[in-house]
Amino acid sequence: MQEIIKIHPNDSVCVALKPLPKGGIIHVNGQKVILLEDVPQGHKFALKDIKKGEPVMKYGASIGLAKEDIMEGAWIHTHNVRTGLGEVLEYTYHPEVVEETKTEEAFFDGYKRSNGKVGVRNEIWIIPTVGCVNNVATSIEKKAQHLVKGTVEEIVAFPHPYGCSQMGEDQDNTRKILADLVNHPNAGGVLVLGLGCENSNIEELKKFIGEYDENRVKFLVAQESEDEIADALELIEELSQYASQFKREKISAKELIIGMKCGGSDGLSGITANPCVGAFSDILISKGGTTILTEVPEMFGAETILMNRCANEELFHQTVDLINGFKNYFISHNQTIYENPSPGNKKGGISTLEDKSLGCTQKSGSALVKGVLQYGDTVKEKGLNLLSAPGNDLVASTALSAAGAHIVLFTTGRGTPFASPVPTVKISSNSLLAGNKGNWIDFNAGRLVEDKDMEQLSKDLFEYVLAVASGKKVKAEEAGFHDMAIFKQGVTL
């Protein structure tokens, strides 16, 4: 295993790939550096003297400004570097020339729906319109398990606390997310469970669902039923019979939509896991497929990389609005825009938001941005899309699912057991995590600094995703985990 990595020729720091002791002698491209302090794995040390106020360079870009004079060989972290970011900014479009390549078609075994959409699972989903019927929904899920048979893979309830006592855009966002899940092709059948008196009642939600197949989507209002659980089980039996008609068949990978998210990042996330997902994204897009990048607050400081890869000026302006809109959201709540990274990020070696964002955006690969989505929107354009959602793991992963992602790739340096409405692949940034939490981690990108090169590792990830799309269960699915979370932005009545 390598000891260190210098990511870009212009960097003034190196990253330790394993713990390095004080006094250790490190050779970097012919330069000898003597470490002045212990440097933990994933953390940085200076390759040269850096004066107070000068930028600290990593990924070939500034990750912040030195708080004090930093000597060559010194450990660099939150004690001696600070963010250099400002507030709401103006941007200029400097389009990059990106060569779009096409590669040989690939295939997976999925489900073709009657409306032309494609799914990678054939599940029955129970969607509550309001938190008041959450317990009813989970009770129905438990009692309906005998109907998991044939090609019906799971029956899953998705409780959430919203759907009432919301106003305006906040309430509409809840309705959009619920409607998006109702329409998601990973569900072969859907039971929409309402209470009856809620703001987002079934008749209101139908306006957001649009046209639907009455054999695939059933509705039940609990207040209008003498025994809502018994009635629901009858409806789910009908849904099970309908969903059982679908069989897996060969489908082009150009139909795949993959969400990309990171959480619990460490100093290796931007070096191993995130670039590996970026290389995967490029492979899928080269075969006509689609990827979605989200968590807008973790683009701050690296946003111009994405802006300059927009396919046209209209998309550039939409991306500017995406970034500044989220900053204004923070400001409107009197919150600090750059209250990031998290304690776990810092422990793993991430020092500033620029450091985190430059690593985070590695997941976008090198493709042109072809679409910009607001929260609750669904994908319309093939290729790389940007989606407005916060950095919160559950909220962002649910937003990716609602936008149409069949699968979410989730990179992590710390590990997490959570799931989302769709298969959620956990990708570790380091082999220690993969070894310690084998019940959480599906794919180890830490091998990038051990025994695999990027070309091979990204191909391995692509083949793994095709296997998951063809029915292979990820660790969270094996554990029976299914989560969802909606972005609450407004007041509660």
Description:
Keywords: Coiled coil, Hydrolase, Lyase. This is Altronate hydrolase. InterPro entries: GD_AH_C (IPR048332), GD_AH_second (IPR007392), SAF (IPR013974), SAF_UxaA/GarD (IPR044144), UxaA_altronate/galactarate_dh (IPR052172). This protein is of the alpha/beta class. The protein folds into three domains: 79 residues, Archaeosine Trna-guanine Transglycosylase, Chain: A, domain 4 (Roll), CATH 2.30.130.110; 123 residues, Ribose 5-phosphate Isomerase B, Chain: A (3-Layer(aba) Sandwich); 227 residues. It is built from 13 helices and 23 strands. The strands form six sheets. Strands 19-20-18-17-21-22-23 form a seven-stranded parallel beta sheet, sandwiched between helices. Strand 3 and strand 4 form a beta hairpin. Helix 1 packs across helix 4, helix 2 crosses helix 10 and helix 5 crosses helix 12. The longest helix is centred in the middle third of the chain and has 20 residues. The chain is globular, with a radius of gyration of 23 Å.
Write the layout of secondary structure elements.
Layout: E1 4-5, E2 13-16, E3 25-28, E4 31-34, E5 44-46, E6 55-58, E7 61-66, E8 75-76, E9 81-82, E10 107-112, E11 118-119, E12 123-128, H1 134-143, E13 155-157, H2 168-182, E14 187-194, H3 202-209, E15 217-221, H4 228-243, E16 249-252, E17 257-262, H5 273-286, E18 290-293, H6 303-307, H7 313-332, H8 343-347, H9 353-360, E19 369-373, E20 383-387, H10 393-402, E21 407-412, E22 424-428, H11 431-436, E23 443-444, H12 454-469, H13 475-478
Parallel strand pairs: 12-13, 12-14, 14-15, 17-18, 17-21, 18-20, 19-20, 21-22, 22-23
Antiparallel strand pairs: 1-2, 2-5, 3-4, 5-8, 6-7, 7-9, 10-11, 10-16
GO biological process, one term: D-galacturonate catabolic process
Coiled coil: 222-249
Pfam family, one: GD_AH_C
